Amino acid sequence: MTSAEDFTLTFHIGAHKTATTHLQRSLEHAADDLVDAGVRYYGPDYFRLPGRTINRLFSLKPRFAKENRRSAADQLALMRKGANRLLFSEENYAGALNVSRPGQVIDRYPDAGARIEKLVAATGLPGIDLCLAIRHPATFLNSAYGQHLLGGRVVSSADYLAAHPLEGVDWSDLVVQLSAVRTVRRITVWRYEDYRPLFRDICTALVGAAAADFITPFGRRSHAGLSFDAVTAVHAAYDGRNGDGLAGRYRAKYPIGDAHPAFDHFDAATHDRVTLAYADQCAQIASLPKVRFLRPTV
Fold this sequence. Notes:
Elements: E1 8-12, H1 20-29, H2 31-36, E2 39-42, H3 44-47, H4 54-57, H5 62-67, H6 72-80, E3 85-89, H7 112-123, E4 128-134, H8 137-150, H9 157-163, H10 171-179, E5 184-191, H11 199-207, H12 209-212, H13 228-237, H14 246-253, H15 268-286, E6 291-293
């Protein structure tokens, strides 16, 4: 069983398209050193293997509870292996990035709070610390649309925005939802736009100050977006049946740069309006009692 007195569970729950992959690769690269510092890290390389989703490992759905011989508390203790801290990073646990069914995304990650509450209750821990990155809603949707195309789901920009409107990206609603969970002790939040200057502070929130010394930014940007020319080429080549591989092919042919500007759903006036709304969301989030909102010092 896991002793609550000398143990912390921290969960980096995303969000999607906020440099999560880069951060996860940086953590994975430092995993052995983190073990020596008393921290065990589990990310997508672990949780996306067959039979290792969080729901399955911790028996969070009835069918898994019938199959698993190990209780959720025992599973946590097994993963802990004597460490002082466990760090989970899996943005898919908070919910899906894009909807694949007909309809509209009214709220982003509407079940995230309930899912966190269910996990903590199953493990028997008194609480959990959460870490969350947020992003300017317009650039978030631009990036999410690119991911939609890269996944082989070719739809027009207008159809995508009809299903994923700007109004559905309200980070303050998400953080209020998470902070309402009684067993959430602290939520550390940062903006994607501040990721680079805050990298050390983010790592400290994830693993503690001493262990953060072992983490360095790993490699370059993990997932490049799509240019206007790449998106145009995808739609021109799409046969109405199979979009697999198209976006990846044209991303390589027309990479974002001076010759190929990044794709953008929105005009300058919309960006300005959303920038003001995003600043208001950040201010609301920073005012919440459980939240530590990271900001660059300069």
